[in-house]
From TrEMBL:
Organism: Pseudotabrizicola algicola
Job description of the protein: Catalyzes the conversion of 2 pyruvate molecules into acetolactate in the first common step of the biosynthetic pathway of the branched-amino acids such as leucine, isoleucine, and valine.
InterPro entries associated with the record: Acetalactate_synth_ssu (IPR004789), Acetolactate_synth/TF_NikR_C (IPR027271), Acetolactate_synth_ssu_C (IPR019455), ACT-like_dom_sf (IPR045865), ACT_dom (IPR002912), AHAS_ACT (IPR039557), AHAS_small-like_ACT (IPR054480)
Family (UniProt): Belongs to the acetolactate synthase small subunit family.
Known pathway: Amino-acid biosynthesis; L-isoleucine biosynthesis; L-isoleucine from 2-oxobutanoate: step 1/4; Amino-acid biosynthesis; L-valine biosynthesis; L-valine from pyruvate: step 1/4
Record's protein name: Acetolactate synthase small subunit
Gene: ilvN
Keywords assigned by UniProt, alphabetized: Amino-acid biosynthesis, Branched-chain amino acid biosynthesis, Transferase
Catalysed reactions, semicolon-separated: 2 pyruvate + H(+) = (2S)-2-acetolactate + CO2
One BP annotation, GO: isoleucine biosynthetic process
GO cellular component, one term: cytosol
Key word Cell inner membrane present: no
């Protein structure tokens, strides 16, 4: 009898299928954490991740409520569903944390990131870099005879795609802000 794949409900018919049908899928999740804006809170949140060996792929933080002294920390992390559930539960137990939202599970969200790209090049490479920047809606924010600095806002995937296209054209540096995200709708 063929093993049942728990995720898809289908059976495997090949004797050469070496995938573990019971292995958990690693997922990327975007978490929005509302915290008191006070010294040491960010260190405690990051300490939770580093102390348990969880990775942070993206981290942004800023005060969002001046009168209430609240900040929003947006964290993109990866893990199995069990690991993500542990992260959320442990974040919720930190005293200055008011709310933990998993934007990935709560429904559609808008995610954007700002990036700056320094691209050095002359001749055809320079022309191609400008052409691609126009396609990706990147703006030239600095220009010299030998390089450009492009500014672009978009999804992390769009930023990654633009970077890959710029590498052979002379990409020298990238600065990224990290993901900012909000749930869609009311």
């Amino acid at each position: 009898m063929s093993p049942l794949n728990i995720k898809t409900g289908s059976t495997s018919h090949s004797a050469y299928d070496l995938r573990d049908p019971y292995a958990e899928v690693i997922e990327s999740h975007t978490l929005a954490v509302i915290v008191d804006n006070e010294p040491g809170v960010l260190a405690r949140v990051i300490g939770l991740f580093s102390g348990r060996g969880y990775n942070i792929e993206s981290l942004t933080v800023a005060e969002t409520d001046h009168t209430g002294h609240l900040s929003r920390i947006t964290i993109v992390t990866r893990g199995t569903p069990q690991i993500i559930a542990q992260i959320k539960a442990q974040l919720a137990r930190i005293v200055p944390v008011h709310e933990v939202h998993d934007l990935t599970e709560e429904g559609p969200s808008v995610q954007r990131e700002l990036a700056l790209f320094k691209v050095a090049g002359k001749g055809e490479h320079r022309i191609e870099a400008l052409r691609l920047a126009e396609i990706f809606r990147a703006h030239v924010v600095d220009s010299t005879l030998e390089s450009f600095v492009f500014e672009m806002t978009g999804t992390p995937e769009k930023i990654d795609s633009f970077a890959e296209l710029m590498r052979p054209l002379g990409l020298r540096e990238i600065a990224r802000t990290g993901v900012a995200a909000l749930a869609r709708g009311a």
